[in-house]
Amino acid sequence: MSKKKRVILIISIGLMGIILIGLVLSIVTKFWYNPFKGVNMPGFGYYTGYTKVLSPDEIKEDLRQLKTDLAEVHPATMDGLPPELEAAFAAAGQINREMTVGKFSLIVSELVCMLGDAHTSVHLGVADLHLPIGIKVIDNKFYVLGGRNLNPGDELLSLGGVATEDIMAFAKQVIPAENPYWRNHLIASVLTQSALTQMGAEINEKRRIDAEIRRNGETIVVPLEFGFAYDIPQPSQDKEFYPSNSAEYGYYLDQENSICHFKLSECNYTEDYIQFLKTMFRDIKDNRIENIIVDLRGNPGGNSQVVNEFLKYIDTEDYKSYCYTRRMSRAAAEQRGYIINWGSVTYKHCIRKNSRAEGLIFAGQIYALIDNGTFSSGNYFGVILADNGIGTIIGEPSGNAPNCYGDTLYFQLKNSKLIYSISYTQWMRPNLDRAEDDALYPHYPVTFTIDDYINQRDLAMEEALRLIQGGN
Prior knowledge:
Blueprint: H1 3-28, E1 53-54, H2 56-73, H3 83-92, E2 99-100, H4 101-113, E3 121-123, E4 133-138, E5 141-147, E6 155-159, E7 162-163, H5 164-174, H6 180-185, H7 193-198, E8 208-215, E9 218-225, E10 249-254, E11 259-264, H8 271-286, E12 291-295, H9 305-311, E13 318-320, E14 323-327, H10 330-336, E15 344-347, E16 351-353, E17 365-370, H11 377-387, E18 392-395, E19 404-412, E20 419-428, E21 444-445, H12 450-454, H13 459-468
Parallel strand pairs: 11-12, 12-17, 17-18, 18-21
Antiparallel strand pairs: 1-2, 3-20, 4-5, 5-6, 6-7, 6-8, 8-9, 10-11, 13-16, 14-15, 14-20, 19-20
């Protein structure tokens, strides 16, 4: 064999080896589905506002863009749009009249809500004027927590002539949700000047609106004005959480009851969080604390790695993790840095080896407090504790389903300038027997009355203390 042929043969064998290694990596480790190019979030143009008028052609163009993005990105549309959504797009495409952006936003929101994915939503992107009122939905009734010209405990019947039943119907159009708890949690987001205007509410030139309420058995009308700020009174804080300057996490040691109250208000996985956990568990060990209460109430999510870091300090060799299917697309490649821009990759349910923090392992009892505002990675945290039998869940149902969609990409419609997010990952909880649940349901549920909210009773914490103290 000539020297030239030997060189060609060696090069060919080398190339084949590289290709073979690439195939093995792709199959065994899904190497090529990792992000390599870094995050590159899109920048968006100006927002036109609700009053801009769109032509029929502009409406049709925006609808085509929305439909294409949903079809190419969302995991639920890998085999095409669901028939009811396809039919809804076809009906919307028949519009042959001018329409304001405000009216068009309702059509877009309703189309997106049909996917039943709380992470896939339309962001109206306008600085809106809110009413000075705090609201809580209990048994489908709107109760006032506080506000200008209002008393705690008032039952709201209508706003500007729009009944609360119609306000809830509107909320179902514009708030994507996987259960009613999340929509109820966000109901105040539709009590804005622009939203109520679209509902047909009567608002005068001074931005005033009449609120019909029931107070002490009597129906009365009180005026409210958009734009005035009102903050719902918060319970007085008699505990000093460490670190006291953190809004995202903190802990308090109740040595009398041998409890560490760990408050996690947001799931941000940072070096500060990692060091914070180390400090907390060292304090738990030094003070021989036997119980941890993980407070996930109102946690809107973030990075799910926060629970993996927490579990490093828990006495378990391994635990069942979520599995997921991630759909690849041009948008995912551009925004998240993937090389591959087609197909999908699935990571099946697996047992995750726990990287234990030796010397600081906690072997006591863990309780997790959740409510309707526990969402996304906050919900993920609670599900991992529940499905692995690591923690006892107390409180109200969470704000989204354990089996859900997430990881969002962002887009903007060309003409209306409406901004929207679309999930590109489907998450499946470890406990397959509870796959159909629309929320993480507590082992020990609590039910609040309006009087409980007004008097700021913490029923979930009371229940946790009762369990820790042996049911007394």
